Amino acid sequence: MREYGKENLPEPGTIYKTKSKNAQEAHEAIRPTSINNNLENLKTTLDNDQWKLYSLIWKRTLACQMVPALIDTVAVDLLCGTEKNIFRANGSSIANPGFILVYQESFDDVEADNDEKMLPSLQK
Hints:
Radius of gyration: 20 Å
Number of strands: 2
Number of domains: 1
Strand order of the largest sheet: 1-2
Structural class: alpha+beta
C-alpha cells in the first residue's frame, strides 16, 4: 500500500454508509485478510484461481479507499488545407490517476488497448 503514496489517500478516510433502510449490505466475510499483504508474495502460497480471486478483492478494497481519478476530456480541432477542412479528435487524458493506480475494471478484467481513446498531452 505504501507504493501508491499518501497523496492518493483522502483525509479523513472514506466511510460508506447505507442511505436506504432496505439496502443490502456487502457480505462482511469478503475482504482481504490484510491490506498490507504484498500480492506477489501470496502467489507462491495460493493456487492460481485463489490468487486471482484474492487479488481482485484486494485491489477493489484498496481502490475504494483511494482518491477519485481526475480525467481531462479533450477535444482538438485541426484545420487542414486551403478549404479549411476541420478534423476533430476527441479523447481524454489522466490528470491524476487516483484509484486507477490500483484497479480499473475494464482494463484489469480484460486485456485491452490502453491507447484507444487516450490523447497525448497537447500544447497550442
